[in-house]
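Section 3.1: Structural characterization of target chains.
Under the original work plan, the team committed to producing a structural model for every single-chain target entering the pipeline before any wet-lab resources were allocated. The record below documents one such target. The sequence was received from the expression subgroup and is listed exactly as submitted; it comprises 166 residues.
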Amino acid sequence: MYAYTGFPRSLNGLNTFISVLDERQKKGIKDEVGREASPLPTDKTKRELGTEIQTTLVGRPVSGPTYDFAPIIDTFLKEHLFGDIFGRDILDFQEREIATVSALASLPAENQLNSHLNVSMNVGLTEAQMRQVVSVLADKVGKEEADRTNRLLDAVLKKRQPPTGK
């Protein structure tokens, strides 16, 4: 379903972006075109690269019932999402996580949002930075999305706290 639910949204997003650029150009604003991504490394397969990136971001190798039930999804995630997409160097991991959290906040994807809030901490984003993301969500997306993200962020931060001993 990813091809039918993800790609159309991506294409619509690109078309919206083109419209914004066209409007800006009509106003005399000249936007600088960004650089192309560097080629992916040639010394490893997409699977090797994706596994490495996924493990780095999550902080451990990823496994579970979803991957046992549908092993091909593990291949798609590692090779395409983490290898092809996260392997590109246009955005660093922190920038990519802010974009990912922002997108997931507006979808019915609470498990993935929770996971990426944790990954955000793993890549060095601070609680203050993530609270700022929640603030932007409240201002630009909606209260419901911001409240859900804030609730999940609270839970992630609580789980990351070292246990207090006596």
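Residues 38 and 89 are 6 Å apart (CA to CA).
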